[in-house]
């Protein structure tokens, strides 16, 4: 903005993020491709008004983002809510779930299997080595969050993180842009075409 001679307050940018991010996410999600069925799941931490909140995230074995969910708590209910959201987003349950050693996440998977929300054939693995993929993926999100002035409200944090996650998915080429009928998907005009697609 400074290059264009515009002086903007941080609150103006925040208002833009709050207003436009949900619409961008909705429109881009129409073009999303399905991720793989071997999921690596982990949580990372985000500070909101001086208190830790928990960002549940999942990627497949190729590093494609499956889903994310910001939660005030890190417990069985939060893990189950994340799993349910991820399954809804992907339209199918995973064949394999790889977790770290946190007991609440393992219990959530067991309870979802018992309740029929996950197939009894879903394999559950606990491996710090296999979860290096998701740990590395957290870095891209945290690097964007760390340079910000901090979050004051949970809702603003959730919206901002959804925009950061969307940009990360775009970089990872997780969208089928052939469905927008563009000749040159590498052109910057692809952004405008995708955002204006109905």
Automatic annotation (TrEMBL):
Keywords: DNA recombination, DNA-binding, Transposition. Gene3D superfamilies: Ribonuclease H-like superfamily/Ribonuclease H (3.30.420.10). One of its GO terms (biological process) is transposition. The keyword DNA-binding applies. The keyword DNA-binding applies. Transmembrane segments: none annotated. It holds the Pfam family DDE_Tnp_IS240. SUPFAM superfamilies: Ribonuclease H-like (SSF53098). Residues 37-173 form the DDE domain. GO terms for molecular function: DNA binding. Involved in the transposition of the insertion sequence. This is DDE domain-containing protein. It comes from Paraburkholderia caffeinitolerans.
